Amino acid sequence: MNDQTRLFLKRRFMEYYSGHPVMGPPGLAQREWGFLFYDDVPDKSRPVQMHRHKSFNSIGELNDYLRSTGPQHAYHSAAYYQYPQAPTMLEKKWLGADLVFDLDADHLPNPPKSYSGMLEMVKREIIRLIDEFLMDDLGFSEKDMDIVFSGGRGYHVHVRDERVKALKSPERREIVDYILGTGLNSDRIFTRATKIVEGFKGQKTTGVWQINGFDDNRQGYGWSLRVARYISDKLADIGRLEDKEAKKVLKKYQLDSKQAGDLLAISRSPAELNKIKEGRLEIKGNLKGFFKNMLDGTITEFKVDVAGKTDEPVTADIKRLIRLPGSIHGGTSFRVVPLTRKQLETFNPLEDAIIFGDEPVRVLVLRPQEVEVKGNIWRVSEGVGRLPESVAMFLMCRGYAEYEP
């Protein structure tokens, strides 16, 4: 990015902030703040300098700062500090932190190649994280969480429930492990139970397998419910196959011929499949290989990968800075958009997060690109030309174009 491009982007960001003040997070004065600026010329010998250890006493101070500096990126701490401006973490005196989840398209297995496809996939995943794990399993309320489009390729969820504020990194890591299904053991999920059956010579008892985590009314919860749903659905798929092919598939799960035959009969009985969804397997024999395969399949299908590519996910890092809602993402020129759960349903980042307009801007495109904004796909060629500002800003922020006065 050359100097004239940096100056143009900085000026436009300053103009945007002048007319669009941010709201700021709760506990603003107790947050540490960090910024990256267009004035910092990149040095190949070291990474770009993050200007941090800043603090603001009011939302007015913060907005004045944004208007006067037009930062490329703006961040605040997930943590609350007694002295947020102090130069070391020890001197800041940590008081607690929000529980933050960061879900990015980079975290997901086999994301679509198109930008719009990635954004749609990651939105489905953040909805699952919120609805199935944070609200259903962990019991957080929507009123205690803020949902934010990151301005790039993902979403953040800030949980501000007082019960999690004091949690340290190990406890937060356990929450991540739960969402990832880390440490789930088939020996804990599946247990032997006793069933009374009517036989030729009267009643007798027999040992059967059941799924833990269901109450007396057969209401399941958490991973146990997911395991039951997965097994029922997987067996239903197998039941639709021809006998020979179905038994071939079942034997891959370390089952003998009788067990495969029993499971095939269950797979073709809606009543038996429904029992499994209620946690009642009622299957005999040594099925540990089958259970391990079913548990592994459940984890792969239902986990939400909030850990990302690093060993320490954002959720477990009690000192991490997170992008400021309402600010501009300097890598895209898109707005970092705060959302309600209802708004998330229909939110389209490539329309609703675009903040620059259609005024033509002259740029030098460095290589051919395809850009989708505001419902249009722009296929731009290498060379100098005029593009709508929304497209030009995206290309410049991504490093695909330079400003041409």
Automatic annotation (TrEMBL):
Into which family does the record put it? Belongs to the eukaryotic-type primase small subunit family.
Q: Which GO terms describe its cellular component?
A: DNA-directed RNA polymerase complex; primosome complex
Listed name of the protein: DNA primase small subunit PriS
Question: What does the record give under GO molecular function?
Answer: DNA-directed RNA polymerase activity; metal ion binding
Superkingdom of origin: Archaea
Keyword check for Transit peptide: no
Which top EC class is named for this enzyme in its record? Answer: transferase
Q: What does the UniProt function comment say about this protein?
A: Catalytic subunit of DNA primase, an RNA polymerase that catalyzes the synthesis of short RNA molecules used as primers for DNA polymerase during DNA replication. The small subunit contains the primase catalytic core and has DNA synthesis activity on its own. Binding to the large subunit stabilizes and modulates the activity, increasing the rate of DNA synthesis while decreasing the length of the DNA fragments, and conferring RNA synthesis capability. The DNA polymerase activity may enable DNA primase to also catalyze primer extension after primer synthesis. May also play a role in DNA repair.
Organism from which the protein derives: Methanocella conradii (strain DSM 24694 / JCM 17849 / CGMCC 1.5162 / HZ254)
Listed EC numbers: 2.7.7.-
